[in-house]
Structure formats: C-alpha cells, structure tokens
C-alpha cells in the first residue's frame, strides 16, 4: 500500500458541530464563524446569516501540496438540512470535494450523507467520488433506556443507497491512503488503555437480525490523518469511541518516525465517560500536541479540564464555521 506523504499545509472547516461560538477569542491560526461568513459574502449580520449547531460532526478537510489541493468531507452530521444550510452560508465549494470518509455507523455522522452527495454531484457535473466505509457500520444499533429496554438508533445509508447518490463505495477494515497520498483513513483501532471501555450498553443487531448483542467497542470507527511537513501528523477523530488515548496511541504507532502535531474532533468524554476525564486529560499530555481541538461529544467538563491543563494557546474547541489552518 502507498504510504502517507507530507503536505505543505492543511485547512479544515467545521461544517457541523454541537456548538456555535463566534465571540470567544481563538489562536491566530483559527478563523471564527462570523469572519468565515463575511469571506463567503455576508454583508449584514443577522440570525438568517448564521450557521446552525447540531448534535453531530462534519468537517471539510483541505490539504495543499505545491499548486495542488485535495479535499475530503469527513462525516456529514446528523440531518440533511444542516449540510445545505451551513454549507450555503459558509460558501463551501462542494464541487471541490474529492472523497467522503464516514468515520463510523452512527446517525449523527451519517444522516447528512444523502444530501451531501446530491450537492457534490450537482456541483461537479455528476462525477462520482469515493466514499470510504467500514463493513461493520450497517447493522442497526440501539442504546439502553434508564427504565429498561432499548432505544433503536436510525440506521445509516447502505453502500447501494450511497452509490445511487453518486458515491463509489470503498468498504474495508484496512487502512487506506487516498488522494495523491495526502490522507490516510486508519484501520480498526486497537484497545490498549485500561480505563477506556468504549460505549457500555451499546447494542447492535445480530447478523441474522433476530436479536440484539453487545457492541461496546464500536470497532467500525476509524480516524483520518494528514502529515503536515515540518510539523507532524494531524488526527481528525469523530467520536473516539475507542477512547481518545487509544486513538492517539494507534496514530503514534502508525507513524513511529513522525511526531503527532494536532488532534481535532469528538473525544466522547461526556455522559458515562465523564468518570475518565482526569485520566484522559492527563494522558493526552504525553503526546506533545501543539493543538488540541475538542468538539462534538467531548462535553463541556472535559473541554474545561483540557483548557485548565494545557491553556488556550493549545486548546481551541471546535464550533460551526471555524477554520483551522496548520
């Protein structure tokens, strides 16, 4: 398999996230939503001009090497309207998107895929583009209810459904290097830490569809990585159901000769995982990261703990419309 090659620089813009925040100050390499909206043509500030926040994640990731650039859409958020609503306001160039990567099979990352492909193929003249998927994404899943029983989770579009929308499905458990070797989609993430237990209580349908079975590890989740020359590996992780430390350990072992530089995405340290905030915040410091950008499912308690531990020159939370330049 080809190896990941360095790029000159990287930009990623948050198309969908749980948070909207154009007032908090940010490091100089981070552009806030309102500035991004003005660049896209906003001439008067109003509620109609702003983006909407949603429980989910979608990131437009653009890598540059020389005069060339390649673009990946990493996830598509929970619902179709948010992709079009935010994308239109932010001036996203859907025609430039070369590939789509779906991190894992949950509704809050896959719900916007159908309209994302509609927008992409409409903008690019009907050209089909690859969509990277894991075969374990497609079984129905469910969450436990406090009083007993299960709450089913809406399933994600099948490879055939996506192909009908203009995707070329690439379904594999293995790591893949894509787009002129500028991006890597990881393989399955090994579980190495003692305290990261995944998503206890999470269920999936058995293969015969007749019963539910435990699925706490959610092995279909993978991350996206880019090597920025002179800096190191940038990891984009959607939910970190493997545990954010396991994610970073796997990234580190995948590129033993290259330092990790940044991590951005959902760290899943809210709800039942709040009990491992202290260990996670402690251990994330062992990777020497220049940028920690928590968002989506990280939770405010973990974000505050990260800022308190590493300072706001290192920790810059995600929010809709923000552009991170590396």
TrEMBL record:
Superkingdom of the source species: Bacteria
GO molecular function: hydrolase activity; transferase activity
One protein family per Pfam: Lactamase_B
All copies of domain Metallo-beta-lactamase, residue ranges: 69-114
UniProt keyword annotation of Hydrolase present: yes
Keyword terms of this UniProt record: Hydrolase, Plasmid
The protein's name: MBL fold metallo-hydrolase
Organism name: Rhizobium jaguaris
């Amino acid at each position: 398999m080809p190896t990941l090659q360095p790029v000159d620089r990287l930009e990623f813009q948050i198309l969908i996230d749980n948070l909207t925040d154009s007032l908090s100050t940010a490091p100089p390499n981070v552009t806030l939503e309102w500035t991004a909206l003005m660049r896209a043509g906003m001439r008067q500030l109003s509620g109609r001009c702003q983006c909407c926040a949603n429980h989910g994640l979608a990131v437009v990731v653009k890598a540059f090497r020389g005069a060339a650039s390649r673009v990946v859409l990493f996830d598509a958020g929970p619902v179709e309207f948010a992709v079009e609503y935010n994308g239109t306001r932010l001036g996203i160039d859907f025609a430039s998107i070369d590939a789509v990567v779906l991190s894992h099979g949950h509704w809050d990352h896959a719900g916007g895929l159908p309209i994302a492909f509609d927008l992409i193929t409409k903008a690019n003249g009907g050209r089909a583009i690859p969509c990277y998927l894991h075969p374990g994404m497609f079984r129905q899943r469910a969450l436990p209810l406090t009083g007993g029983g299960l709450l089913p989770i809406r399933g994600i579009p099948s490879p055939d459904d996506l192909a009908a929308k203009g995707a070329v499905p690439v379904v594999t458990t293995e790591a893949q290097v894509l787009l002129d070797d500028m991006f890597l989609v990881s393989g399955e993430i090994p579980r190495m830490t003692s305290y990261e237990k995944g998503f206890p209580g999470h269920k999936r349908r058995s293969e015969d569809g007749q019963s539910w079975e435990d699925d706490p590890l959610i092995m279909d989740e993978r991350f996206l990585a880019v090597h920025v020359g002179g800096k190191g590996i940038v990891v984009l992780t959607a939910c970190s159901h493997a545990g954010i430390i396991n994610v970073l350990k796997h990234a580190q072992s995948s590129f033993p000769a290259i330092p990790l530089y940044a991590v951005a995405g959902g760290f899943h340290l809210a709800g039942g995982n709040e009990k491992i905030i202290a260990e996670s915040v402690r251990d994330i410091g062992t990777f020497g990261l220049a940028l920690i950008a928590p968002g989506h499912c990280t939770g405010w308690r973990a974000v505050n703990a990260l800022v308190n531990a590493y300072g706001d020159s290192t920790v810059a939370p995600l929010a809709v419309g923000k552009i991170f330049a590396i």
